[in-house]
Structures are given as C-alpha cells and as structure tokens.
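Before surveying the methods themselves, let us examine one representative protein, written as a sequence plus integers encoding its fold.
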Amino acid sequence: MAKDFLPSFEWHRVMVEPWSADAFQNNLWIFLMGFLVATACGLVGNYLILRRMSLIGDAISHSILPGIAIAFLVSGSRGTVPMFAGALLAGVATTVIIEVIHKKSRIKQDSAIGIAFTTLFAIGVILISLYASKIDLDQECVLYGEIGFVGLHPPVQLWGMNLGPLPVFRMAVVTVITAAAIMLFYKELLVSSFDPGLAFTLGINATVVHYCLMGWLSTVVVNAFESVGAVLVIAMLILPGAIASMLTLQLPRILMLTVVIAAMSSFFGIHLATWLNCSTAAAMVVVASGLFILAWLFSPTSGLVFKKLRHRSDSVPEFPETATDVLNPQPGK
C-alpha cells in the first residue's frame, strides 16, 4: 500500500547523489540557508516560548504580505531594499498593534495576535488582488518560499572573495548578530522573560527588552521568509526550541541544542526532499517535526516512554528479602 503513495527509496539517489560533484555546490547553499534560518529563528523562538508568545511569529510572517505590496506602491520598484524595508516596517507595526490592543483593552494577548495578523494578511491579499496586473508577485512564493533556488542568486563579492549568494550572506549576518546579542544580553533576556517584575527591581527595563526582542524578531522573520516562506517560518521559530526544551531544562544547553537540531533538520530535509521530490523547506520542517515526536517519546527527562517506565518501577511493591525482615522489621523499611 505504501508503494502507491511513496516513491521507492533508492539509497544512492537519495543519500549520495545530492552531494555528488554536479549537485554539491547547490545543495551546500541550500543546507547553509536552511541551517542559518532554523538557527536564527530557533534562537529567538526560545524566548518566545518562554514568554508564551510563539504565535506572534506567525502574526509577523503574515503581516509581511501587505508590507511588500505597500512598499511597491510607494516606491514603484521591486528592488530588494524597498521590499525589505516595507516588510520590516510591517513586522514592527504588527508588534506595536498587538501590544496596543492587548494593553489598551480587555482583549488577551492571543486574541490580539489573531486580530492583528488576520486583518493585516487580508489587507495584503486585497492589495495584491487589486494590483496583480502591476505587481509581478507570486503569492505562493511569499507564503511557501523556495529554498531550492537560493544558489541562483548573485554572489556577494568582498575583497575579491566570493562570500556566497546574497540571501545566504544576509542570513549569515543576521544569525551571527542574533547569537552575539543573546550572549551579550543573556541576563536581561532571561530575567525579563521569566519575571518582568524582578527585572525592573534589578534595573532592567523589561518593556525596552520586549520591544527590542520583537523588533529583532521582525528582522529575522523578514530575512527568513524569502526562503522558507511566511507559512513555514513559524515552524522554524517553534520546533527547534520546543525539541531542545524537552531534552534539557537548562537554557544554555537548550540554546546549544537548538543549533544542533537546526543542522539536523536542514541536512536530512534535503534528503527527504530528494526522495519525495517535494519542497525542500517543507521537508526540513517535516524532519524537525519527526525529531519533535522522537523527543516527545524518548526524552530521558520528559519522554512518554521513560515516564511510563518510571511509573511502573515506582508502582512495584518492595518485598522483604528474608523471613528475619518480616519478624524484625527495621526502621525505614
């Protein structure tokens, strides 16, 4: 039955050919882009998970659509700079709108997120529908992305060296800045995420930290959606951190495991896409989802299997070893 739905698995075609001489360079850029996107999104996503704000990444990713359309209408250009600026401003505006709705009304934060992103996304769809004849913009590309074409972008030349395609170079810069910012402001991010009240008593302005985190989240999402798409970027924001948090409770280890999981998702996603002949970005997310299921089942700290085994061992009654223990029970037994 499975043969009717899945193509046959050929080891050489699926596992060897993607890294052969003909395909190596293109797949290397795909791997690096997927790894960088998953790492940057995953590192920021850890703090969204701590703050119970995971869905705000979904809101920002959807608000990019009207930002791109408005940027074209204002600038009359489809260049990288106006498109990036419009998307970034739309992401920051989404964060502000959500906070205003949440703090100036009785609407809870999850409802404010739903109101903001559905409204902005609908506006984007209307704008693109109205100006479809003037804007050469593929909605499916914005929603789903296509990481498979990342190697076709013009390379970045610096001091005579080829630093790779522009999207990969730009995402590498964003990822390095993300990691550096987390190391520099680790205490501020940690305390404000767990207890904003305590942060204020320690001299940390939790409100400023929050808006800085949301602003940088917008930057990461805008850079990532070009390759993984607005719909799939939310998975990269949540899955790596969620998997790591099931394997350990220490935040430094969670951050390190996030990078490892990002690499595994990107690498095996390429092979899954080769096997199924499907979207590479979607395959990377499916691999990450598979890793989550494995962690959910077999995590030594919170896995279902180990919980079941511990429950059985705790429920087994302790029997006395000898008859003497029955006649003369010792204290504590």
